[in-house]
Amino acid sequence: MKITTIETIYQGADSAMPALVFVRVRTDEGIHGTGDTFYLPQTCIAVVHEHIAPALLGSDPRDVEAHWRSLYQAYARFGGRGAELRALSAVDVALWDILGKSLRAPVHRLLGTAHHTVPTYNTCGGPLYASVRGGSQAGFGSSRRYGKLDDFDAFLNAPGQLARELVDEGAKGMKIWPFDRYAQEKGGRAIAAEDLAAGVAVVREIREAVGDAIDVMVDGHGLWELTPAIQIARALEPYDITWVEDLVLADKPHVLARLRAASTVPVSVSEYLVTRDAYLPILQQEAADLVMIDPTWAGGITESRKIAVLADTYGLPVTYHDCTGPFTLLAGIHLAAATPNLRYQESVRAYLRVVYPEMVTDVPEVDDGVIAVPQAPGLGTELLAGIEDRPGAEVRVTAL
Ligand SMILES: [Mg+2]
């Protein structure tokens, strides 16, 4: 089997997810695979066509580890852990899709299945959450309101009501970011007492509404410096928080270690990290209670499974990140099903019900807090026919 064509499909700056790009790899045997990645899509597209396609065309797509290593070695020489690794991640997911289809097996079977059910929690973004142009928003989300399923608007303005609705439909967890707005308005160097109280009030309303019927996770998107991050974590201690994540950026393990030591709230680290080498010092310095991985940022399925093994070696559970694209979610679910030390697969119900069905043929359903594990060969979903012909879409092709 030979790779004959690598295509990038970008839905355009006015699409629901303008930071998302799809990558499709085609072969001479008629099998194709698809992946995606998120942030700086034009830069990722350039990496795919300038380097990855010329390197991979004509080679066997099933040599997944060999391709990963040769591409990684090229990028690691000059610290290429951003767009290069995201482009590599998207292509790697597409290669696993091809491998699964070629062997007529779902990807989780190739990885060695550990679980037949994958628990998920609802990240409270609305359908427009990732619609900010340029893909550079740091977590606060679009200020435009969508209406139905706008969980972003709901957690800020009616958190108790949202929590009751989620519990009623079987959700086992919800993630919110009630402090972001203050960091974005005033900077993250300090937090005012009234802002700390207002953020905590969101969590208190959830607990008052549903008690401990739902896990609550609090994200900070790396917006705070250490002192206000510690204040936030300590203020959340009475509310049985499942974890805080990215209250500070995850680039300094010793800072995270101080945050973790300063409160009893578990600390999750971090979808912003790329490759095993970024996670290792976090684990060595005991700076995390849980590990979060985004499969199409951190290095694809190939590298994510190794990060999960590394986390297991340090006794930590893994959660796979997604509010970033349907193939990221599918990659995460297959990884999750094959991760013995699994905690959660993240999902956004507004994406599952509104955004992703506009992009792909099959979106896994959530039932009673469990997300379905696809059993079709490969990843188990395809781009919708004609997606590349929609207004604003940009397709670029490099072929043998
Ligand atoms: Mg996060």
UniProtKB/TrEMBL annotation:
Naturally occurring in which organism (per UniProt): Georgenia alba
Gene3D superfamilies linked to this entry: Enolase-like C-terminal domain, Enolase-like, N-terminal domain
Keywords from the named record: Lyase
InterPro entries cross-referenced by the UniProt entry: DgoD-like (IPR034593), Enolase-like_C_sf (IPR036849), Enolase-like_N (IPR029017), Enolase_C-like (IPR029065), Mandel_Rmase/mucon_lact_enz_CS (IPR018110), Mandelate_racemase_C (IPR013342), Mandelate_racemase_N_dom (IPR013341)
Protein name: Mandelate racemase/muconate lactonizing enzyme family protein
Source lineage: Bacteria, Bacillati, Actinomycetota, Actinomycetes, Micrococcales
SUPFAM superfamilies: Enolase C-terminal domain-like, Enolase N-terminal domain-like
Sequence ranges assigned to domain Mandelate racemase/muconate lactonizing enzyme C-terminal in this UniProt record: 159-266
Pfam family, one: MR_MLE_N
Chain ranges passing through the membrane: none
